[in-house]
Amino acid sequence: MTSIRKVQESPVAEARPGRSLAIDVDRGLTIAFMILVNDGMDSAHTFSQLQHSVWNGMTLTDMVFPNFLFLMGSAVIFAMRRPIREKIPRAIILRRAARRALILFAIGILINVFPTFGWTTMRYFGVLQRIAICYFIAVLFYVYARSFVSIAVTSFGLLLLYWVLLCRTPLPGLGLPGTEVPLLDIHDNLANWLDQACVSLTQTLFHTGRLHHGFRDPEGLLSTIPSVATTLFGLLAGLVMQGEKNREKVWRLLCLAGVTFLAGAGWSFLFPLNKNLWTSSYALVCAGASFLFLAACVELFDIRRIQDRFRLAQAVCRGAVIFGSNAIFAYVFSELGHALMTTLVVHEGALSVTLWQWSYDHGFGIFGAGKIASLGWALTYVGLCFVLNLLLWRRRIFLKI
Question: What pLDDT is stored for residue 197 in this prediction?
Answer without folding.
Answer: 94
